[in-house]
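The pair is quoted verbatim underneath.

:::
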Amino acid sequence: MVSAAVAPAWKAMSTAVEELRPKIEPTIKELVDPIGKAEGELINKLKEGAMSIINPLLEEHVTPHLAKIMEAMQKPMTDAYDESIKYWDENVTKFEIKGPKGDLDKNFGDIDRLYNSWESYNIAHKIDVMYEPLWALHIIFSDIYPWGLIYQGHQDIRGTIDDAVYTFEVAVKKEAEENEACLSDAKALNDKIRALVLTDYQEDAKTRTMLWYHKSIKAIIMPPFNALVIPACKAIISPIADAIPEAMKAFVDPNRLFDELINGIIDESIETVIRSGQK
C-alpha cells in the first residue's frame, strides 16, 4: 500500500527535476563558483599564515609519538585478525551445506552464531594487551581512553567474522539458485565459495585494521593538538574572518576551513606512519 502511494509521487518529482535541471544548473553554477573560489583563496591564506605555527607544534607534540602508538596497536590487532580468519576458515570448512535450495537458510544456523561464540570473544580480547602501553601515553595525551578504542576493535573483529559468514551464505544461495545441481556435491560447493570468501576476508581484515588504526590514533592525538593549535592560530584566523564580505559570511566559514586544514594535515601524518608500519 505504501509503495503504491509513494511510487507515483517519486516518479512525478523525478520528472519535474529532470525538466528543470537545464534551467537551474547554470544558475546554481553561477552562484556556487564564487563561493568555491573564495574558499580556495581563504585556505591558501590560512596556509600561508598558519603553517609556520602548525609545523613546529606538529613536530613537537605529534610526530615523535605516532610510531609508539602504532607499535602498541599493530601486533595485537594483526594477530587477532589472523586468528579470526583461521577460526572462520576452520568452522566453515567443517560446515555441511544441505539442500534443497529452499531450505538452505535453516541449515546456516550453526555458522550464523560464529561471531557470538566464546571463541570469537576470546579472539577479540587478544587486543586487550595494548591497554597498558596505550595508557602509559596518558602523560602526553591526557584525554586518551584506551578501553574505548579497544572495545571498538573487539566490535570490528567480531563484525568481520559475521560479515564473512553472511557473504558465504549469500554466495551459496546464489550459486544454488543459478544451478541447483551444485548442491549434489556439497563439499565441492563449500570449497569453492569458501576459498573466494577467504580471499575477500583477508583483504577486508587489512582494510579494517588500517581504518581502525587511523581512527584510533586520531582520537588520541587530535584533542590535545587542537587545544594547542587553535589558540596559537586565533590571531591569524580572526583578521581573515573579518576580511570576508558580509554577503559571503553565510557561505564561507574560516573556522570550518581551518578545521579541514588541520584535519588534512593530521590525516596525512597518520597515514604516513601507518604505511610505514605496513612495510
Observations:
- The two ends are 56 Å apart (CA to CA).
- Residues 66-234 form one domain.
- Residues 2-61 form the longest helix (60 residues).
